[in-house]
Structure formats: structure tokens, C-alpha cells
Design brief:
GO terms for molecular function: DNA binding. The chain has ten helices and five strands, in the order βαβαβαβαβαααααα. It has 219 residues and is of the alpha/beta class. It folds into two domains: 136 residues, Rossmann fold, CATH 3.40.50; 55 residues, Winged helix-like DNA-binding domain superfamily/Winged helix DNA-binding domain (Arc Repressor Mutant, subunit A, Orthogonal Bundle), CATH 1.10.10.10. α8 packs across α9.
Length: 219
């Protein structure tokens, strides 16, 4: 019987040292091989188009596009691609957003040497990867919803508004954002006004603080 081909992996993280460490873990396994690397979410989308990996491992907090934004786009354009998130933060909100973005779960960087290989294999088997803290979060969320008799709240802002919020918080001007997203400055300003109104915020500084709080950019 011929041996199964190893799982081809795209690895995206904006820290070169993290990528190198994660790659060492993965490449030491006979059934896993890293075929492409990326330094931000936009590069990850491009690399996935070029290399057609089986599995994408995406850091949540990256410049230009976050791992979550990239995961949403990849889930839409390459539905057969399996996705796993990497993060420094054990945060329930991230965990649920990760699942909503089409990923199978996430691995904490602090225990990547212990959990990452098993997470990759579980994801390729079509199973969600749930570490103990995530299981507790899922159960607590389910019980809260049952108790309150209501579904989880909808996301406050649209994907496009989130893109613009991230770029504003990174210090880009309206003109730069318009050029990056290939839309008019007027459209950028309209989205920005909508964001301030929806989130009840006053200015760029408050938008930036909000972006840090929800994990769109790192402080």
C-alpha cells in the first residue's frame, strides 16, 4: 500500500522567529511538511492561491490583515482548505470568532510544542481542536445561552468595516486606505463615520483602543 502524502502546510506569522520555531516542530513529523510561509494575512491569502496547501496555520494578530480576516477570505475562496489559528492569548472571544471564521480551533503559542502536531492531525481528520480551556468556554457559553433563552449576539460591525477599523488603527490615512482597498476616499470616510456611530466612539484614538481590545492589532 503506498504511503499517504504528507499534509502540505502554509504557515503565517509576522514574527520570523516564531515561524522558524513552529516550522521546526512541523517539519520534524513525517506526515507534515511546510510548503509556504507568510508574514501577514494578505501574504497568506496570496500564498494559499499559489501553493494550494492542505492546511493553513495562521497567527491571529498580524499586520495588514489579521489571521481571522484571512481565514474568512480563505474559507470563502478555498472551502476545502483546513485552517488552524495560532495565538498568544487564551481568550474566549477569539475562540468563538475563530470557529465562526471557518477555522477548526486554535493553538496557544506557549504550548505549541505540545499541542500543535496533534491539532494539525485533528484538523485534517475534520475534527475541531479543543484544548481544556476552550472546552470550558464552549460549555459556559452554551449554558449561558440556554439560561437566557437567546442565540449569541451578532457581530457589531461588517467585515469591510473591520478591515477599515484595522487600517485606521494602524495609522493609515483615508487616502492610503482607499488605495489599499481600491475604494474611494469618500467611501472610507463613510465607513469610518459608521464605525464611530455603531461603536459609540469619538475619534481615531478611541477606535485604536477598541481595535487593540478586540485583537485586531497588537498594543
Amino acid at each position: 500500500m503506498p504511503e499517504a502524502m504528507p499534509t502540505r502546510i502554509l504557515l503565517a506569522d509576522d514574527h520570523h522567529l516564531v515561524r522558524r520555531g513552529v516550522r521546526l516542530i512541523l517539519d520534524s513529523e513525517p506526515d507534515l511538511t511546510v510548503v509556504a510561509e507568510a508574514g501577514d494575512g494578505a501574504e497568506a491569502i496570496e500564498a494559499a492561491r499559489t501553493h494550494h496547501p492542505d492546511l493553513a496555520i495562521l497567527d491571529i494578530a498580524m499586520p495588514r490583515l489579521t489571521g481571522l480576516q484571512a481565514a474568512r477570505e480563505l474559507s470563502r475562496t478555498q472551502p476545502e482548505l483546513r485552517i488552524l489559528m495560532l495565538t498568544m492569548y487564551d481568550n474566549e472571544q477569539y475562540f468563538f470568532e475563530t470557529l465562526a471564521a471557518g477555522a477548526s480551533g486554535y493553538v496557544l503559542k506557549s504550548v505549541a510544542d505540545r499541542d500543535l502536531v496533534e491539532a494539525c492531525r485533528a484538523t485534517m481528520r475534520g475534527e475541531p481542536f479543543l484544548y481544556p480551556g476552550a472546552v470550558n468556554a464552549l460549555i459556559r457559553n452554551y449554558l449561558d445561552r440556554v439560561r437566557e433563552g437567546q442565540p449569541p449576539p451578532a457581530r457589531a460591525i461588517t467585515d469591510r468595516e473591520e478591515e477599515i477599523l484595522k487600517l485606521v488603527a494602524e495609522g493609515h490615512t483615508s487616502q492610503e486606505i482607499a488605495d489599499l482597498l481600491v475604494i474611494s476616499v469618500k467611501t472610507v470616510e463613510r465607513h469610518r463615520a459608521n464605525l464611530l456611530q455603531k461603536l459609540g466612539l469619538k475619534d481615531r484614538l478611541e477606535l485604536t483602543r477598541y481595535a487593540i481590545r478586540v485583537g485586531l492589532i497588537e498594543p
